[in-house]
User: What shape does this take?
Amino acid sequence: MAIAITNPFDDDRMHEECGVFGVYGHPDAAALTTLGLHALQHRGQEAAGIVSFDGEQFHGHRALGLVGDNFSSKEIIAQMPGSAAVGHTRYSTQGHTILRNVQPLFSEFSFGGLAVAHNGNLTNAITLRKSLVQRGCLFQSTMDTEVIVHLIAISPFTTVVERLIDAINQLIGAYSLVTLTGKKLIGVRDPLGVRPLVLGRLDDAYILASETCALDIIGASFERDVEPGEIVVIDVDGIHSYKPFHPVPRRFCIFEYIYFARPDSVMEDKNVYEVRKKIGAELARENPVDADMIVPVPDSGVPAALGYSNESGIPFELGIIRNHYVGRTFIEPTDQIRHLGVKLKHNANMANIKGKRVVLVDDSIVRGTTSLKIVEMVRAAGASEVHMRVSSPPITNSCFYGIDTPEQGELLASRLDVAGIAKMIGVDSLAFISIDGLYRAVGETQRDGKQPQYCDACFTSEYPIKLSDKEEGEAPTQLSLLA
Ligand code: SF4
Assistant: This one.
């Protein structure tokens, strides 16, 4: 019997767990939101949803699957009239992708309807949920986002903004929220600004989005990042900014620069593509190797490989070709051909690499299964030497701030040192960028050990936000309350 399995290349990656988008003041709000979600598809491919407001009523459509598979028909867009909309694209760990977990979450309150789209992860969600359940709250989904909805519902304050502030003051975690009420579009970024959120303009309309690439796709101008700890409220009177939190030093996720964000996005005033090239150049300075060609593991390794090639003077070659038409899952007819599955997505360019000393450049090693297959593939194609250079430091810890990572024990670098990893994946040499090299690439002199400038916990184990549920002995969930 044919069974569907997860593509092993996707299974051995860190996954961003959501993209958010909102429009206020444009007659084609739902259509613009669809385009915005297309641009944010890399942040989540398992489900998408849009809620719009037409001045009297809310409308919505949520579905499992890609944006293009669910929001391409005129009829669907026509079902969501209005000049304001909020959208969400979601990645979730397997088994948790069920329709009731697809955002935006919509609820009716005493003040009217409210839709919430959330990127990130609350680290005290289980504790909050237990206390809310004890108070009689009935949960409909298994998402941590629903905790926010209930906190708003039971808040003693009157206005939406006051109730939202009251709710988020009880949250611990990393979050960028875009919420839509009958009168306002509201963006929120957590006090440390771990997850991104930007503000844009399209004529008289305001846009909120996870990344600037979602502004580009609709022709909107980039105004600014929503600041860490800022609440941006957009309504008929324009834009209002609130900063209700005690200010703390920002800790943006440094992995956004390495892998998660689209390379054409600008994050915290830095173009992601340029940062990735700088990481590659640092990697070449720190870890030179005598070789004939630099080969990126496509697509995410390309900018760092270009940077490595420019710095080292070793030619850049597309020695591995990626098939762009393979989805996240494919059908394997029998177990015996399972190992052929990896070639569905990547294949070595044999004529190009035969007899050559190859340096593979990849953005990360998670479980190591992908690297092993890639190295085997390149050796089978006749490379005389295979070296690997990695544009992130070794990933030794799980992320609890909105990125889906395996349990710590499954992370190869948590169990093996560099020599052990090199042996396991079968390379002639292996090197990772150092943490200071990474900080230099993002424009710092070095990592400030007393007050690191970014969140880098998956490399350093220094978690900047309390892992509250974990410390309370709750199951250390990274995404869903199901666990
Ligand atoms: S732990 Fe790693 S992936 Fe998670 S927010 Fe921090 S830097 Fe980003």
Observations:
- Residues 194, 253-255, 399, 401, 403, 455-458 surround iron/sulfur cluster (CB under 6 Å).
- The chain has a mean pLDDT of 90.
